[in-house]
Amino acid sequence: MADRFYEQGTVQCPYSYYKELREEKGVHKLEGEDVYLVARYADADSVLSRVEEFSNKAGPGLRQKALMGAEAALPDAKYRVVRTLLTNDPPSHTRFRKLVTKAFTARRVKALEPAMRGIVDSLIDAFPPDGEIDFVRDFAKPLPLIVIADFLGVPRSDLEVFGKWSDDAAEVLGGTLTPERSRECQESLQELLGYFDEQIAKRKLKPADDFLTMLIEAVDKDEKPLTLQEMLAISYVTLVAGNETTVNMLSGMMLLLQQNPEALARLREDRSKIPTAVEEALRLETPVQGSVRLCKVDTEIAGTPVPKDSRVLIVSGAANRDAAVFADPDRFDLDRENARAHLSFGKGIHLCLGATLSRQEGVIALEHLLDRLDSFEVPADFTPRYKDNAVLRSLISMPLHVRKAAS
Question: Is this entry keyworded Cell inner membrane (predicted)?
């Protein structure tokens, strides 16, 4: 059963497969790979908490080590991504997290709200008064890309290439790339890191009120600044984590509203339920379906032996629909009291730093869409299609007929 993990049918709609995983055993080894899938909430929660046994130094995305052969290797690469946040452990991780957390405080994120509302309005302004849009292309993708670009401090004129670099960087996670495509993504990553190198050099000459300048000025308790390699790695992670996941959250939320018209009608009447709608979208259409850990010792998960050096995929998309935690787990429930208990942002020392920012984008987006559009509807024959990625839940497109409210 676990062998269906990479199949197209599973990638397009994994939830019946996830249910089988949870009900049969909860922990499954992929055939031909030293990878264990963890599908139940309690087990996923446990692995996330056992940082001494399960390391974040799990390497690149699924199957990427096997694919990074002669065809994909870049022996003369100028830049390399050093471990900072996502693929690091304490005490090194602790140092970086303390330095970067200052940029994501609730106060700083709240200060971004007026600009964020302006971006949302400008995107809706471009919608026809009564006509067709592609919600992914025209709203879900540009919103977080503009927000994170402004946050980093890069010019909006570079958004198109910025988006390509971000998409390429995220694509390596899913385990479905060919060696040729892996090489293309590695070349794209070199271009992205080179771009950030140039931007950081400019900030050193002319500081600004942005994230890149904050990285340059950051020092730890021993007055030790970040190296250029560390700044490049943090910038890269911030771009991808702040962009790709929010695109998927916004797309998933709109899809759920289309599939649950009664919930949409209720949101139009009661805007206080918008934050819960965002949490339910994060839970039901988990933007990043899983995260990888490296087993540091011979251990076990829920009675299943897991050898040292094995890789463990915490399938948060499965854990988030576990009936042991979420009553009627497949229901989009605006009254769910524990909606925020999902694992979509991780947990503990690796809880996503951008969680507050992403939530704020989702709430503001839905507020303005409801305020400014009398209706938004998918065609009756619409069938969702997702990118071929076993980890990122990325809707390719979503046609919508929109009708603006009278101004």
Answer: no
